[in-house]
């Protein structure tokens, strides 16, 4: 007959193994694969001196990465749902970022990579549940491949330094769930026609561009007749005195931004009761 102490010891051993297993699968903290993924991200963002805004990650005795700064986890699953990596790199010469670094984060829904001087991504960014992506304030030389981001609802590409802003934006046409697109400060001279293929688009931000002539305003008027939910923010330093024929017919327009122009008079907006 087994001695009671031996049986008790075995039970405590099994309980300890279960606790270790639960920790590995995130029940008592962040998931180990995501913790390892964060450490790889930290290494990628380390500056020439080996220091970045992510230096606190992995330091001290706190192993639960859900409690690390810039990291938000789902309360139930302990999976990482949000990463705020804005200005994480102390460098003005940021290289391209390896897209595979985000593969461990299966439930990531919101990520900001703004203001990191990134020039682009190596590989395809494949985060199936991602809904919000902020790439503003970087040095992107082209729009990265985002076809795998079918859940994406908001994309901010504003204030980037593109080597060629004449491309057709076809890289975005497969984002069928995209609702908000920021292209402010992009240097556009015309609105790319392929943007109108974004059937779920509700907000298009085009401030601080160099749109000129009557065509952009008329295109927007035509677009809003077919997509009345769309809100457009349009301002430009070079589209002065282009007329308002199309815009004044937008009975459902909610936002009209005409700042930073050179208009000699402000037209009557009485007909736009929705403003």
TrEMBL record:
It comes from the Eukaryota. Gene3D superfamilies: Ribonuclease Inhibitor. Residues 1-29 form the signal peptide. Residues 33-74 form the Leucine-rich repeat-containing N-terminal plant-type domain. GO terms for biological process: defense response; response to other organism. Keywords: Leucine-rich repeat, Membrane, Repeat, Signal, Transmembrane, Transmembrane helix. This is Leucine-rich repeat-containing N-terminal plant-type domain-containing protein. It comes from Escallonia rubra.
């Amino acid at each position: 007959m087994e001695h009671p102490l031996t049986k008790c010891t075995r039970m405590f051993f099994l309980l300890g193994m279960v606790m270790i297993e639960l920790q590995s699968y995130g029940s008592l903290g962040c998931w180990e694969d995501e913790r390892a993924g964060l450490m790889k991200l930290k290494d990628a963002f380390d500056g020439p001196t080996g220091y970045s805004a992510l230096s606190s990650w992995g330091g001290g005795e706190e192993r639960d990465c859900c409690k690390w700064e810039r990291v938000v986890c789902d309360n139930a699953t302990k999976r990482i749902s949000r990463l705020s990596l804005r200005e994480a790199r102390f460098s003005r010469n940021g290289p391209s970022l390896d897209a595979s670094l985000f593969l461990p984060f299966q439930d990531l829904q919101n990520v900001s990579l703004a203001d990191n001087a990134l020039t682009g991504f190596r590989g395809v960014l494949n985060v199936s549940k991602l809904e919000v992506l902020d790439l503003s304030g970087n040095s992107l030389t082209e729009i990265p491949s985002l076809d795998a981001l079918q859940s994406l609802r908001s994309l901010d590409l504003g204030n980037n330094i593109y080597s060629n802003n004449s491309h057709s934006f076809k890289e975005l046409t497969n984002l069928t769930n995209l609702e908000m697109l920021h292209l402010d400060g992009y240097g556009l001279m015309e609105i790319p026609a392929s943007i109108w293929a974004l059937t779920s688009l509700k907000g298009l931000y085009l401030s601080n561009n160099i749109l000129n002539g009557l065509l952009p305003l008329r295109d927007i008027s035509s677009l809003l007749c077919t997509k009345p939910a769309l809100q457009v923010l349009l301002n430009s330093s070079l589209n002065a005195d282009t007329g308002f024929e199309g815009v004044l017919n937008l009975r459902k327009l909610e936002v009209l931004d005409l700042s930073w122009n050179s208009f000699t008079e402000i037209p009557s907006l009485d007909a736009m009761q929705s403003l």
